[in-house]
Amino acid sequence: MPLNRAAAKTRLANLLDDMARRTTAGPQDRVDYASELVDLMADLMTTATITGNVSTTGTAAAQAGTITTARLS
After folding, report:
1. How far, in Å, CA of 52 to CA of 44, rounded?
2. DSSP 48
3. Coil, strand or helix: which one is 72?
4. pTM above threshold 0.90
5. In tens digits, what is the pLDDT along the chain, a chain of 73 residues?
6. Half-sphere exposure at residue 38, Cβ-oriented, CA atoms within 13 angstroms
7. How far apart are CA 73 and CA 1, in angstroms?
8. Which helix (H) or strand (E) is 7 found in, with range?
9. Given CA atoms 41, 43, 46, 51 in this order, what sign does their dihedral have?
10. C-beta of residue 1 within 8 angstroms of C-beta of residue 47
11. Using CA atoms, how far apart are residues 43 and 37, in angstroms rounded to an integer?
């Protein structure tokens, strides 16, 4: 599935609006913001298509490798 940039922008804007409405800016508020931001990023990375080059080792039946020059799309 391609990266849904519009949904990402909306979620980030909502997160920023939520932080702007808060009347405190203490340590827990920053932890809450960081947690929400990490969740948003994780959702984006796990739902997007990742393209790149793969270098493999092993046999045709048991390959292992890493993706390089990876890009979310």
Report:
1. 17
2. S
3. strand
4. no
5. 677 889 889 999 999 998 888 888 789 888 999 999 999 989 888 888 888 888 888 787 888 888 888 887 7
6. 6
7. 8
8. helix 5-21
9. negative
10. yes
11. 10
